Amino acid sequence: MKIKYSILSILMAAAVFPGCQNLTEDPKANLTPGTYFKTQSDLDGAVSAIYIQFARDGAWGFTNRSTSYFGSDDFTTDPGLNKEDFRLFDRLSGGSGNGSMVAQWQGPWQGIYQANNVIANYTKVNSTEEQKNQSAGQAYFLRALGYYYLVRTFGPVPVILTPIDVDDRPDRDPIEKVYEAIIADLQKAKELLPVKFDNAPGKADQMAARSLLADVYLTMTGWPLNQASNYAQAASEADAVIKSGQFNLNTPYAQVFTTNNGPESIFGLQYNVNGGLPLRSAGSSSVPLDEVATNGSSGWDDYYPEINFYKKAPKCKRTDDTFYTTLKLRQPDGKTFKLVSWDSPETHARHPYYKKFRAGLNGDGVSETETTINSINPSTNKVYDIIRYPLVLLAYAEASAMSGGGPTAASYAAINEVRKRAGLPNLTPGLSANAFRDSVVYERAYEFAGEFGVRWFDIVRLQLLPKIVAERSAEENPIPANTNFAQKYLAPIPVNEMARNPKWKQNEGY
């Protein structure tokens, strides 16, 4: 792995984040191991550069951030077209040479390297202790976030916590050590960050750190660590966020995906088309190829849910707002549209799609009415929420039930808060711990359908691949008969990284 510190990233950060990060200055910090920042403006620019590394198009700005998560039932893709990279993982057949998967590896590492330089040098800056600590706290949070996605996606990775030479070739560390580093970083972030940043959407705060820590502890209870003792820690961290009273589910579900930084957004990456940083996984990416707008733009057909995942969805308002089931086919006159069902022979994929990702920010993705489509755009200003409040509520519900031998009244209250907003009745009382956990996992699947690996990571930690493959429709992209599911929970290390690190052993099955 080579360090690729970039002054361009810092300059982009100043242009893209002025409203959220208050970067009115011109950052001049050159992110190399031999240099450090002198002013708070330099430090602010360096921290914003970390966010940029995660948010950019070659990292988490496009659908390829989820390439290896296409093995989940909430993701599939076209059986043809130019979707081979996604389709291979959908068939549980992806390999180390997959070009789209590189974003899943490179994005977090670039952010980690930037964060390492901030953490190594922030104390030298001529500023107040409070300001320096807030900058460092964000760097610790973002470094933990990067490692959390890396370890869940690729398994053992090097734990690099200081700037290193470009020629260093560290070994892959055991998964346990990676999680130790993640927890240490998030505990440090909790210590340094304020409970809340006022008027600064996009900045990670103490509640973001605690929310992520709850999710980390919950993940550690399942495969491959299977540390059930961490249920209690997950419940404790989630409970602290709930009791803070900072977040709520008062926003209608559909509106969550057409507006930015609402009352349930705990941490989200900020995007700005004019600043050269678009989110390209809303709009065109989730729109059927069959749909063509009056201005001639069309959908990309990158991703949509599997048929049986859609069919098993609960009957409620949230489901109506999640899935797009009536396609608009432009007629020869170019102005009128024919409405057809998702499974009509007039559609080429015969799948439902995602409605909640169409609009982008108030229609800067797909601009449409009930019967017409005016335009379909691939670049939007929509914030991409990594952590929404329902994730915390459901983490608490599951963790509190599993740590105490069964669900409590508070466990039920947490999941029922999510269900109420969805338009569902309260969950059946009196469930066993395992039955309650399964109900939470089902709820999370549809609350977060299609959202950045949430469903896939539940499948991984609970080893659910045999179950979801058995329930898979014959209409989906076929999975080879001899597939070893146990070897598909981790993605392969990209081939270029294996070439740079000849002592590494590739993940099993690749």
Automatic annotation (TrEMBL):
Superkingdom of the source species: Bacteria
Residue span of the signal peptide, if any? Answer: 1-20
Entry's localization field: Cell outer membrane
Give UniProt keywords alphabetically. Answer: Cell outer membrane, Membrane, Signal
Per UniProt, residues of the RagB/SusD domain are 353-510
Tell me the ranges covered by the SusD-like N-terminal domain, including all copies.
Answer: 100-218
- One Pfam family here: SusD-like_3
Query: Of which family is this protein a member?
Result: Belongs to the SusD family.
**Protein known as:** Membrane protein
- Biological source species: Dyadobacter endophyticus
